[in-house]
Each structure stands twice: as C-alpha cells, then as structure tokens.
Specification:
alpha+beta; Amidase signature (AS) enzymes; eight-stranded mixed beta sheet; 15 strands; globular
C-alpha cells in the first residue's frame, strides 16, 4: 500500500554548481582532518582492529580523543569530568580484552565507574566519587573500552534536554543554539562531535533515542531485562550506547547483554548484517495523545517510509490504540516517584532537607508531588501501565516493526526546556516534545532512532523504529539496511572533529 508522497524538485544549473563547490570544500576539509587524525573516520570496531593489526596503540587512540576533546569540548560541553591520566595508565598497561580493546569511551554521569566522580547532574553531588563500578559499566570495560571520563546529563536524568545548573548546557554540534537532547545528551553530542566513536547512555523515557535524534547519531534502547545489571521487574530504564555505526551498537549489545536474560527473552548475540526478509511496517505519525508533529518531523518520517517501501518493505498506516493521556499521567507518576526517592536518599545522607541550593526546581517539584499523595497512586499507575503494555504488544502482533517520529519537533533552542522554566510550562512543553518515546519504556520493547534526515537548516531528525519484546535482531538488521541505503557516516556536524581542524 502506498502511504507516502513523491516530491520532485528542479534545481538550476547555478544551484548545482554552487552545491558542487560546497561539497568539494567539505570533502577537502574532511580529507585534511582525516590526514591529521587517521582514527577519526574509524568506528569503534575499526579502531580496535587498527590496534590488533599493529597500526595503532591504545595510547594513540586515547591521545587523539584527548586532542579532539580539547579542541571541541569548550564549545559543546559534552565531557564534564575527565580522567585522562587514569585512561593513560590503562592504555600503557594495555591489558584490554574484548572486541573494543583500547577504544576510548565515555560513561554517562548517572552511572558509576570507580574512582571517577558521579554527579547525577546535581549540585548536591558534585563531590561524590564512587568506590565501585556498576555492573553494566564493568561489562563495557570487560568488552575492552578505556573509560576516559563522564558525559553531560540533566539532573537525575529527568529532562529531555541536557541543561543542568550543576554541569551547564550541552550544546548540539549541529547548531550551538540547540539542545543535544537528554538525558544522554552529553553522549549524543560527544559521538556527533567525533570526540569518541561510542558513548554509554541509558533510556528511561527516550534518553538514548532523543539525543540520537537531536545529534544525528544512532541509538538503540534494548528490551527490558536484556542487559547486564538490569532487573526482571517492571521498570523503565535500560542501559545502552550511542554510536555512529550500526556495527558498533551491535557489538556493544552482544557483549553487554545477559547470558540469561529475563524470562521470555533469548540472547541476541552478534548481528552482523542486514536480512533479506521483507518486513511489515506500521507507520504511526500521530503521538500517543493524538498530537501531530512539526512539518519537518512529518517530512522526515514520510521520507523514511518512502525509503522502506523502495527497499521492498510493506508499509501501512496504523494507529496503536491506547489512552495516551492516562499513559502519560501514569508514566509521570512513576517518574516523580523516582525523583522523590532520590531526594529522600540525599536528605537522609545529608541529614537535612534539600533546598534550591542543592537541587533544581523540577527535581524538587517532582519530589513534592511524590510526597504529597503521589506515592499512594504508584500501585494503580503501575497496574494500568502494565495493562497498556499488554495491549500494545497484542496490537503489534500484525506487524514486525512500528515506524514513528522520535520527537514532535526538531531540536529545541537551549533554554526552552531548562529546569528553571516554571513547572506548569515546562511540564506541558516536555510532554508534548516526548510524545513518542515513553510508550516503549512502558512496554519494554526495543526501539531505535536512526539518523536518516536533515532539515533545510541542517538539523538532524531521527526516525524511530520499535519491535516486539526481545526482537533487537530485527531492528539491527533493518538498521544495517538503512545505513547502506542512506549512509550517514560522512555527515559531520559543523562543530565536530570532521569539520573543525584547529
């Protein structure tokens, strides 16, 4: 069934000449950059292979990454805590194992790596240095990554933009006036800027897919109960990574998933290429509450639908029926509960109430909501969300994947969703913006943002694909196919190592 429209544009010969000159300039600049930094265009697997072939050492890769960070981080503020000396020590020992042996890596500043500060984006925690490494981060280290620092994140990961009062805004490498997304905004910006090929993220409401869309990189949210360190209980957040290549994400998943995942799931293993299988794809452009996305977002998703049809997949318009308003209310009840518990833990640790000098207004508002009756609503909200998850799973049986926007708009201007915006205004802006991602945290299904579209203004807009619970293999196989059909590896942001040479 044809569901998309074809657009044919005429271009004057003068416009073609100008475009050709522009492309020549970009290629020349990229060639100069590649010559001065021979590792820049290699993905993580490629960098590790260079080490294995004797073409580079872990120290070479690390020093190149440190130079990129020194050149670009003052502009994007993606890296908020550096451990270059610790990383240098590990590189000199060269005792890395796994497929990413010696590849530089950033950990999101919500997660613990022993000896490196974890702030959770909060002023109250600027002095906290963990003594132990979280299980998932240890799995990444076991896969060979050389942790060199922490990436920027909003306070406790509560926002869809990365603009904490403690760490400062993380700016989008495609446009420094725009948000890099959240809550893995620092990870998305770091990968888009070419600081590192891979950065760790986590996703509790879209926090891998949102920055992947904003920053023009790839982000996969795995299934609930899949990853090392995850629980089998009903929860929202899962660990993962943001990458420039599908191959890197496939390797990360294969080497950080549990040997025995949650009941009903099978290990994915390493997915190495596309499949010849043609998929039934449901196209769902409206948000959960019936929202229509911005025109650029609609164009992006329709362009992706056209591409899928051209590749032989069957695309049909569909609507996943659910009470979007109730789902969002219930989701935010549990979201506020998490914030409330975090504040309670800090108050117990400090022996006093948290104030606006310690935490941001949004965090305190969520905590107050939790304390003033919100916690009593958690059991009923959880029950309704579990029922909604079952309903969505049943409706998806007719399809292999669902295609939708990631976000309602292109990356917003810095400040529009800052944690200091009055709560009622921020709440409305945030819930409208993230109309498409939380449902898959509720269902636990895997979902990904694929960078297939840029606006006329040069802003990336990702396309979201979701699959049945446990079916990451189908997503990765489709992602490989889309990556080959519409490559993005050579698309470099204006504020990236691929474009900024000095």
């Amino acid at each position: 069934m044809q569901v998309t429209r074809r657009r044919f544009l005429s271009v004057s010969s003068q416009g073609i000449a100008a475009a050709a000159l522009s492309q020549f300039a970009l290629r020349s600049q990229a060639a100069h950059t590649a010559a001065s930094d021979p590792f820049l265009k290699l993905d993580g697997v490629g960098q590790a292979q260079a080490i294995k072939k004797g073409e580079a050492t872990p120290g070479d890769l690390l020093e190149a990454a440190i130079k990129r960070i020194g050149r670009l981080n003052p502009k994007v503020n993606a890296v908020v805590t550096a451990d270059f000396e610790g990383a240098r020590s590990r590189a000199s020992q060269n005792e890395f194992g796994g497929p990413f042996a010696g590849v530089p890596f950033l950990v999101k500043d919500l997660d613990d790596f022993a000896g490196i500060r974890t702030t959770n984006g909060a002023r109250a925690m600027l002095g906290y240095v963990p003594e132990e490494t979280e299980d998932y981060i240890q799995a990444c280290a076991d896969a060979g990554f050389n942790v060199m620092g922490k990436s920027n994140t909003p306070e406790f990961g509560l926002c869809a933009t990365t603009e904490s009062l403690a760490l400062g805004p993380c700016y989008n490498p495609w446009d420094l006036t725009r948000s890099s997304g959240g809550s893995s905004g620092g990870a998305g910006a770091a990968v888009a800027a070419g600081l590192v090929p891979i950065a760790q993220g986590s996703d509790g409401g879209g926090s891998i897919r949102i920055p992947a869309s904003c920053c023009g990189v790839f982000g996969l949210k795995p299934s609930r109960g899949r990853m090392i360190g995850s629980s089998d209980e009903f929860s929202f957040s899962v660990k993962g990574a943001l990458t420039r290549s599908i191959r890197d994400s496939a390797y990360v998943l294969a080497h950080s998933e549990r040997k025995q995942p949650a009941p009903g799931l099978r290990p994915v293993g390493l997915v190495e290429n596309a499949s010849r299988r043609r998929l039934k794809i449901a196209l769902n452009v409206r948000g959960g509450r019936g929202e229509q996305p911005a025109a650029d977002v609609s164009d992006a998703v329709l362009s992706t639908a056209e591409l899928c049809e051209e590749l032989g997949h069957e695309v049909s318009i569909a609507r996943i029926a659910l009470d979007g308003d109730q789902l969002m209310r219930d989701f935010l009840t549990l979201w506020a509960s998490g914030a409330g518990q975090a504040v309670e833990a800090l108050e117990k640790q400090f022996g006093r109430p948290m104030t606006h000098q310690d935490l941001e207004p949004l965090t305190l508002a969520f905590a107050e909501q939790h304390q003033n009756g919100g916690k009593e609503h958690v059991p009923a909200a959880t029950s309704r969300l579990q029922a909604a998850a079952e309903s969505v799973a049943e409706q998806m049986q007719a399809y292999d994947v669902v295609l939708s926007p990631v976000l309602s708009t292109p990356p917003p201007i810095i400040g529009e969703q800052a944690p200091t915006v009055p709560y009622d205004i921020l709440f409305e802006r945030m819930t409208n913006y993230v109309a498409y991602t939380p449902v898959y945290n509720v269902t636990g299904m895997p979902a990904m943002s694929v960078p297939l579209y840029w606006t006329k203004q040069g802003l990336p807009i990702g396309s979201q694909f979701a699959a049945k619970l446990g079916d990451e293999k189908t997503l990765l196989e489709l992602a490989y196919e889309l990556e080959e059909a519409r490559p993005w590896a050579d698309k470099w942001a204006p504020w990236s190592a691929g474009r900024v040479t000095a």
